[in-house]
Amino acid sequence: MAIAADASIPTSPLFAPLRVGTLTVRNRLAVAPMTRISAAPDGQPTRRMGKYYAAFADGGFGLVISEGIYTDKAYAQGYQFQPGLSDDAQRDAWRPIVEGVHERGGRMIAQLMHAGALAQANPHRADTRGPSAVRPKGVQMAFYRGSGEYRLPTPMSEAEIAAAVDGFAQAATRAREAGFDGVELHGANGYLLDQFLSEGVNLREDRYGGDLQRRLRLTVETVEAVREAVGPDFPLGVRVSQAKVNDFVHKWSGGVEQAAAIFGTLGKLPIDYLHTTEFEAWQPAFGDGLSLAALAKRHAQVPVFANGSLHLREEAAALLARGDADLVALGRGALTHSDWPRRCLQGQPVEAFDRGLIDPLADLDNAERRRERLRTEQRQSAR
Ligand SMILES: Cc1cc2nc3c(=O)[nH]c(=O)nc-3n(C[C@H](O)[C@H](O)[C@H](O)COP(=O)(O)O)c2cc1C
């Protein structure tokens, strides 16, 4: 195998294998979860999505984390053409996709997502549910086919909360049956679990609202239910962030102490890893202290996946070398180059992210059209 052509960039920490619970990953490079709204209308993933995911394993990524997959046919689905794991037909359609990644030496984790109040389009329900009747900030995301304000959610009843938790557990069981190597609960970016965690969004006065431990209760119960459903040896992680898709600059008001409490609580749960995401993963989470990944590592003592602008390979390698994280997950970097790991090993240049790949729509069609257009332009300018 080729080695890094540019010896001045110490990339070796990125290429050591990693053990996450019972899972061994061949290197420290993962594809971050990315919604591509390219499933069939009934939520079944397609063969084309299989090719998309297989390309990352071909390109050397050790781990592929799927896009956010909806968990139930009640209120979980966020977007039209989002894939699900809410029935057996959806499960069966994931099987060849996971196999395609496995055949290329990769491992694949299913990200399980409940959109809560951020649901933009859900064929199963006309209205939305959230912790409280608070309209989400901002406007719906156009690149996921949304427009205008978010709907005002109805506060979830205890029975609806129990159903959502059960939805996660059942979807996790299906993920295991489909051959996935683990599941990641989407507790970040402003979706349901994060809505319950967030002051100002969760105004509940029952056992799911109030102080931090109460606001974390839904995540805790979900982890416990999923663990119970999948058994002790199936890798399980939780994704956490400060920022939200509808509020990029959100910071936890309690700063480092709140981070210590959140990661301390999560670290005691039966999980195998935490996945933190920030705009630039290596920057201090608050003021001038540790990054969010490093805070997770310090207070949770489980393997930490870090995400956020880590296609800058020096930053990615340095983060791992410092011990602030155990694995880096690339979003835009992976979209730019599905063979980013191979390029990194071979010291090849990497291009800047082209927003046209996900604009005006974040689906696979749009990206393919964009790539074709750029190829045509290059051919024409070479003449
Ligand atoms: C098109 C697109 C879709 C995304 N969908 C998801 C998702 O389904 N689940 C999730 O946790 N994050 C999602 N993200 C966020 C990415 O996982 C990642 O946090 C973000 O791109 C920043 O990482 P980067 O700097 O490596 O791109 C999405 C990002 C993009 C660009």
Report on the structure:
Helix 1 packs parallel to helix 2 (88-103) and helix 7 (255-267) crosses helix 8 (292-300). This protein has an 8-stranded parallel β-barrel, surrounded by 5 helices. Strands 1-2 form a two-stranded antiparallel sheet. Helices cover 35% and strands 14% of the residues. The chain has a single domain (12-352), classed as TIM Barrel. The chain has helices spanning 47-58, 88-103, 158-178, 192-197, 212-215, 217-230, 255-267, 292-300, 313-321, 332-336, 340-345, 364-382; strands spanning 18-20, 23-25, 29-31, 63-70, 107-113, 129-130, 154-155, 182-186, 236-241, 273-277, 304-307, 327-330. The protein is globular and about 65 Å long. It starts with 17 loop residues before the first strand and ends with a helix. The longest helix has 21 residues, at 158-178. With 383 residues, it is of the alpha/beta class. Flavin mononucleotide (FMN) is lined by residues 32-35, 67-68, 111, 186, 188-189, 239, 277, 307-311, 330-333, 358, 362.
